[in-house]
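pasting for ref
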Amino acid sequence: MIRFFVTSLAALLALAPPSASLQGSTGATGGPLGKGILCYGGPPAPEFPAGLPAEPKIGPPSKPAEGGSEAGDTGGLLGGASNPPRSPGPGAGPPIGTLDPLRWELWWRLERDEFLDLRDTVRRRHAMVTSGLSAVVRADRPPSRRMIDASVVPALLGVLSGEESDEMCQSALIALARIGGQGPIVGQGPFVGLGLGIEPALTAHLASRSQVVSETAALALGIFGEGTSFETLAELLDGTEAGAALLGRGEVPDRTRAFAAFGLGVLAFDTADVARQQEVAARLLDTLQTPSTSAEVPAAAMLALGQCKLPLAVTLPPAALRSHPDVEALVSSAGMARWLLTRLGTSERDSTITSPKERAFCLTTLAKFASDRDAALRDDVQRRLRTEASDRRRSSDVRSAALVALGELARSGKGEEDEASIRFLERMMATGQPMERRFAAMSLAQASARAGFGDDPFQSASAAAQLLRTQSRKGSCLERPWAALALGVQAFQLHQASAGAPGVPAPARVLLRRKELLAELANQRNVTTIGAYALGAALLHKGADPAARGKAGEVMLEAFRRIGEPEAKGYLALALGLVGHEPAKDALLDSLRESLSRPDLCWHLSVGLGLIGDVRLTPTLVEALIAAKSHGTRAAIAVSLGSIGDRRAVDPLLALVEDRSMPSATRSMAIVGVGILCEESALPWRNPMAHALPYSAMTSTLGGQYHAIFDIL
C-alpha cells in the first residue's frame, strides 16, 4: 500500500502546476481548520467531562454468514459502472428518477433539509450550557476538528489509496469533500508526516477507470471548493486537452462535463468571493453558448449558474474578465437576468435555446437573479414567467418550471405585477394540467408568505391559506396532500419572516386555525397521504406555544401508533420531531428497535428522535450496529448515526469501514455515515441546487436511475 501511495503522490506532484502545494492553504475561514466541524471558543473541551457517561465499549461488527454472503445483502448501493442502478441508500428512498413528479414525495425529498434543519437543531442543543461557574458539556456533542483530523481523514484517505471497490471510493470522495480542510494530516499509518491534503486525493481519482468514480471526483472537488478546485473543474467543463489529460482519456465525456458544472455550482454557492463567483459565471456562460449534442451539459450549466451569488450593485469583475463578450452579465445580478431574458428571446425565432429542458432550467435560474433592486426588471421577469406558464405551445416541463419560478419571485402585498402573479397562481390551481395545479399550489404558498410592499406586506396570505385549506379538503385525492403540505410550507416561511423582521405579523394571525388541519390528520386513514398532512401540520405549528405543539404532538402520536405502513410511519416520526413532542420518545425508540431491517423507516425514526433530543439514541444504534446480521440493517444504522451528529458514533463507524470481512456495500454506507457526521455546513451540500428546481425536467445526471447527483448521500 505504501509503494502505491508514494507512486501516486509522485505522479500528482509531477502533474501539479508550479504554484500548487500539497500542504494546501488555511481555507476560506482564514484559520487552519478549513471546513471544520463546529468548534467552541477557548481551549478544547475535555473529551468526556466528569459526571457524564463514558463512550460505550465498541467491539468489531458481527461477522457475515459463512462464505461472506449475508441474508438481506442487496449488493452495492452505490455501484460502479458495471453494477445495475440501485437504491441510493437509507433515508433517501428509491432513486429520484423513479419518483413521479405528480406526487408530493418528490418535492419533499428534494426540499426537506431546510425544514428539518436537523444539524443546526442538534448543534444548538449540544452547545455549552453555563450553570453558575461550571460548564456542562453533553456527551452526545459533535466530533471536534482534532478528532476528525486524527482519526477520520486518515481512514478515508486510506480507502482511496488502497485497492477498494468503486462504491467505497465514491463514498470516500464525497465524505472527504464534505469534511474539507487541507492542512497536514496527523494520525496512524502510511500518511504520518507526509502532509497529504485532501485535494490531491480527489484530483487523482478523476483518472479512475470507473466512469462513476471519475464523475464523483469532479463533484467532490466542487464540494471541497478549495485550492485549485476551480481551475481543475473549469478545464473539465470546457472539455480541454488539459481536462482530458486529468481523466487519462482522449476527451471529456458529456456526463463528466455535467458533473464538473454541478461542482462549480456548489463551489460558487459556498464562496463569499465575488470575483470567484464572476469567474464561475463566465465559464458557465461560455458553456451555454457552445453548441451541445446533449441536454445534460446545458441543463447542468444553467442550474449551476443559478448558484452564483452575483452582486446586487454593479461590481467590476477581475481584469481578465473585463474583455469578456458578456461582461455586462457578470457585473450584477440584474445584468445576468437581462442576459437570460435575451437568451429566452421574445419568440421562437430569436431564442437561442433549443432544448426544452434547458429552457425549463433557464426560467428557474432567471427568478434567482431578478431582485428588488431593479423593480422594472423584476416586473418584466414576472410577466415573462406568466407568459411561459400559460403558453400551451410550450412543453409541460417548461410551463411547470415557470410556475416554480413564480413561487420564488412573486410577493404578497401591494404591487401590480405581484398581485397579478398571485391571482395567476390561484387560477392555475383550478385550470392547469395536473402537474401545473400541484406546483401552482406550492408556489402560491411560498409567494404569499414572502413580504411584499405597502401597508400590509402579507395581504395575500389569508386568502391563499383559505384556498389551500379548501383544496386540502375537497381537491382530488392526489391534490389534497399537496395542499396540506403547502399550508405548512406557508406557515413555516411566515414564521421565518416574523422572526427576522419586527412588526411582521405572526403566522397565527394570517392563517386559519391550526386545529382544522389537525382534525383532518386525525381522520386520515389513507397511508399514501397521511404523511403530507402530518408534515403540513408540524410545519404549521412552527413557532407555536408549547401547549399548541403538545396538542399537535398528541394527535400525531396517536396516528403513529395507529398506522403500520412503514413509509407513513416514517413521515409521522419526522412530524413528531418537528414539533419536539417529548412524550413520543419511548414510542419512537421502541419502533426503531423493531425496524432496523427497514432502512428508510430506521432513518426517519432516528431523525425524529434526533430532532426531539434523546441521549439514548446513539448507544441504541451502536448496539444494533454491532448485533446486525444483514447489510441493509448495517447500512441503515450507519447513515442514521451520521445524521444525528454524535461523536460517540465515530469509532464504531470507522471500525466498520476498516473491517474487510464486511461487504464493500456495507463499508461504503459506513463511510457515508462518517462523512455526514463530520460535515461542517448546516445543510447538505446538495440543498441549494435541489431548491426550486424544474422538478419534472430533471436530466439523467440530476435525477436519473443511474448515478445522479441527488441520489448521492
